[in-house]
């Protein structure tokens, strides 16, 4: 198994589409640190705070501990842990990791491979990003972990069972919503081409979300980003949810986000399939953050 396959096949707890991006986030973080200092060892005390922040922002909306990926990523042979007693993790206990002054870093063979082939770092990162996060979050996530990447193709992995995206989805979704943002109605064009309009997956493609109209929304760039970050969601009756955790004091924030609470979606046009309940339910449980605000009067 090569390094791209190992990145693609991290052992993760998974059940019924529940997100568990703990290991991918830690590995992305470690790749970012390696890019800065290839010899750096990462104390658990430092990783704990950074990974906790990453999990809060890019993980599912439930409590978790960075100790689990710090310990369990060792089993994927891409990560090693050392303590005062030598190589090996003391387990997933936070106290034990702190008391033993545990440190982690990329496995020796992986560090050697990255030195021999520098482009491998970017390709591994692209695999992790593509398999676990929607494209709208890739740039922000790279910034958050300190990664500077050249865009790299992941098609080289070419596993025979790997799903292929349907390139027709964008056009099908934008047509179904008549080239309007389903949240705000934005319909910008430059010439005859739509600009700032995107096809968003409700259930993420990385988590078995199909490239179908009933799993898609036409959204402007702003609302696509907020939808993928869990600020916005879709509730019963296809009405817009706005997280109570969102804070925006400006007039623009009130008008473009807070005022959406309780509004019905715009579209799809008659005859087009509306969002499937199963996909809405997945997004609400796995992406949307906190409780929804009451509808704006």
TrEMBL record:
<protein>
    <submittedName>
        <fullName>Restriction endonuclease</fullName>
    </submittedName>
</protein>
<dbReference type="Pfam" id="PF13391">
    <property type="entry name" value="HNH_2"/>
</dbReference>
<dbReference type="InterPro" id="IPR011396">
    <property type="entry name" value="PT_DNA_restrict"/>
</dbReference>
<feature type="domain" description="ScoMcrA-like DNA sulfur-binding">
    <location>
        <begin position="4"/>
        <end position="148"/>
    </location>
</feature>
<dbReference type="InterPro" id="IPR058813">
    <property type="entry name" value="DNA-SBD_ScoMcrA"/>
</dbReference>
<keyword id="KW-0378">Hydrolase</keyword>
<dbReference type="Pfam" id="PF26340">
    <property type="entry name" value="DNA-SBD_ScoMcrA"/>
</dbReference>
<dbReference type="GO" id="GO:0004519">
    <property type="term" value="F:endonuclease activity"/>
</dbReference>
<dbReference type="InterPro" id="IPR003615">
    <property type="entry name" value="HNH_nuc"/>
</dbReference>
<feature type="domain" description="HNH nuclease">
    <location>
        <begin position="181"/>
        <end position="234"/>
    </location>
</feature>
<keyword id="KW-0255">Endonuclease</keyword>
<keyword id="KW-0540">Nuclease</keyword>
């Amino acid at each position: 198994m090569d390094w791209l396959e190992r990145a693609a096949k991290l052992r993760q707890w998974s059940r019924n589409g529940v997100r568990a991006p703990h290991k991918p986030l830690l590995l992305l973080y470690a790749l970012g640190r390696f890019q800065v200092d290839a010899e750096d060892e990462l104390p658990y005390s430092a990783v704990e705070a950074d990974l906790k922040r990453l999990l809060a922002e890019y993980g599912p909306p439930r409590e978790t501990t960075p100790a689990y990926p710090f310990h369990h990523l060792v089993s994927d042979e891409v990560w090693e842990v050392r303590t005062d007693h030598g190589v090996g993790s003391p387990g997933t206990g936070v106290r034990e990791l702190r008391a033993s002054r545990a440190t982690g870093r990329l496995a020796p063979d992986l560090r050697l491979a990255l030195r021999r082939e520098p482009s491998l770092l970017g390709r591994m990162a692209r695999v992790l990003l593509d398999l676990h996060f929607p494209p709208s979050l890739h740039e922000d996530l790279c910034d958050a972990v300190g990664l500077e990447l050249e865009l790299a193709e992941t098609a080289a992995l070419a596993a025979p069972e790997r799903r292929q995206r349907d390139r027709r989805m964008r056009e099908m979704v934008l047509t179904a919503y008549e080239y309007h943002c389903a949240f705000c109605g934005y319909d910008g064009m430059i010439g005859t081409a739509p600009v700032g309009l995107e096809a968003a997956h409700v259930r993420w493609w990385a988590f078995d979300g199909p490239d179908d109209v009933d799993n898609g929304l036409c959204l402007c760039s702003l609302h696509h980003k907020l939808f993928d970050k869990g600020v916005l969601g879709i509730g019963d009756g296809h009405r817009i949810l706005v997280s109570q955790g969102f804070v925006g004091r400006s007039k623009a924030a009130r008008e473009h986000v807070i005022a959406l609470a309780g509004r019905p979606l715009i579209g799809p046009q008659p005859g087009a399939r509306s969002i499937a309940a199963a996909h809405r339910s997945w997004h609400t449980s796995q992406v949307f953050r906190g409780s929804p605000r009451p509808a704006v009067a």
